[in-house]
Amino acid sequence: MDNILEWRNQTRKRLIAEREAVPEVIHQQWSMAISTALIQGFPCLKSMKIGLYWPLRGEYDPRLVAQQFRQQDATLALPEVIDKHAPLCFREWWPDVPMKNGAYDIPIPVDTQNVTVDAFIIPMVGFDQQGYRLGYGSGFFDRTLATYQTRPLTIGVAFELQRLENIHPQSHDIAMQYIVTEAGIFQIDQEDGLIAISTHQCAIRNA
Question: Can you list the domains of the chain with their CATH numbers?
């Protein structure tokens, strides 16, 4: 593709607009399906340090399901932008913790401890058949994941309307290990791409 950046910008705008146009009742149904898949498919999360995100512009909201994992001993953390060229810093988050607006006016916890995350629930503007993620264009999550010597658990979340054939990944793009949509859980295979697996199969692999 001659102009990948322009294609990505136009695709990003289209997918965000389509996501924001989803009726609230449908959004709730899809979100419930994703939450159920996360709970049933990833029992390991209840004992992990989970990096999540503050939802924007019609994204799936991971906070309620994350609180269930926290009640079972998980640590939750939200990202803070320190510098536009630096990896994200994750700060511990829990309900009712004091918050302030950070970069891009996204809420972040106030002066809580830094957390070294070992599992990420990552928002996606789009995703393709090889598990690559189209984000907002700043590269923060890819830059953060690249700092890990041992690969953390990466779970991308989106709705099926955000599925693409190919996002034309660049050298810095990092594929997810799993993608969860309202249609279920998909594991990424290097040869075959997205493969649907049951919550039971996923739970066994992530016990």
Answer: 4-205 (3.40.50.10420)
Residues 183, 30: contact at Cβ < 8 Å? no
In tens, the pLDDT along 175-197 reads: 999 999 999 999 999 888 999 99
- With b for 16 or more beta-carbon neighbours within 10 A and e for fewer, the 112-146 pattern comes to beebebbbbbbbbbbbbebbbbbbeeebbbbbbbe
Query: Measured in whole angstroms, how far is the alpha carbon of residue 151 from the centre of its chain?
Result: 15
Question: Shortest CA distance to 50 belongs to which of 21, 20, 80, 91?
Answer: 91
pTM for the complete prediction?
0.95
- The pLDDT tens digits of the residues spanning 92-105 come to 999 999 999 988 88
Query: What pLDDT, on a 0 to 100 scale, did the predictor assign at position 107?
Result: 94
CB 145 within 8 A of CB 135: no
